[in-house]
């Protein structure tokens, strides 16, 4: 019984630490792999433009290549409203902290392209007008123009 309790406690603690350090981990990974960070603020269950952004851009193969080819580290700071979609308290806290720093106006969707230090390189307010291919190409161009 003691072993089971310890194992459960360790899993809960590991998840909490991972959630609290998601952005710091992204900055570290970004620095190590010379990637950019794409931070997206969304309301996944109430914001129609957010839902369209995820369906038409973020969930596409073209966008996913950005992650697999070490162009970006993607973070979604989600703010769902429906009770069934609520996030863990740790993730809510981290998303609120990211919003305090990067989305003080409370825009949704709001997408930022950051360097490994967290400096804003580009921002998109609302649903980007580009399709997934053009959106991904723009991110690649910004990355290619970064000084090593």
From TrEMBL:
<protein>
    <submittedName>
        <fullName>Thiol-disulfide isomerase</fullName>
    </submittedName>
</protein>
<feature type="domain" description="Thioredoxin">
    <location>
        <begin position="1"/>
        <end position="144"/>
    </location>
</feature>
<dbReference type="InterPro" id="IPR012336">
    <property type="entry name" value="Thioredoxin-like_fold"/>
</dbReference>
<dbReference type="InterPro" id="IPR036249">
    <property type="entry name" value="Thioredoxin-like_sf"/>
</dbReference>
<keyword id="KW-0413">Isomerase</keyword>
<dbReference type="GO" id="GO:0016853">
    <property type="term" value="F:isomerase activity"/>
</dbReference>
<dbReference type="InterPro" id="IPR013766">
    <property type="entry name" value="Thioredoxin_domain"/>
</dbReference>
<dbReference type="Pfam" id="PF13098">
    <property type="entry name" value="Thioredoxin_2"/>
</dbReference>
């Amino acid at each position: 019984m003691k072993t089971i309790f310890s194992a459960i406690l360790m899993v809960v603690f590991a998840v909490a630490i991972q959630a609290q350090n998601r952005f710091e981990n992204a900055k570290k990974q970004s620095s190590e792999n010379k990637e950019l960070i794409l931070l997206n603020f969304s309301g996944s269950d109430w914001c129609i433009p957010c839902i369209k952004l995820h369906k038409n851009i973020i969930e596409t193969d073209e966008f996913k290549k950005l992650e697999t080819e070490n162009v970006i580290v993607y973070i979604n700071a989600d703010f769902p409203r429906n009770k069934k979609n609520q996030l863990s308290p740790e993730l809510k806290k981290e998303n609120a902290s990211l919003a305090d720093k990067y989305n003080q106006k409370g825009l949704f969707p709001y997408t930022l392209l950051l360097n490994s230090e967290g400096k804003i390189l580009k921002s998109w307010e609302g649903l980007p007008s580009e399709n997934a291919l053009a959106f991904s190409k723009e991110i690649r161009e910004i990355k290619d123009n970064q000084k090593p």
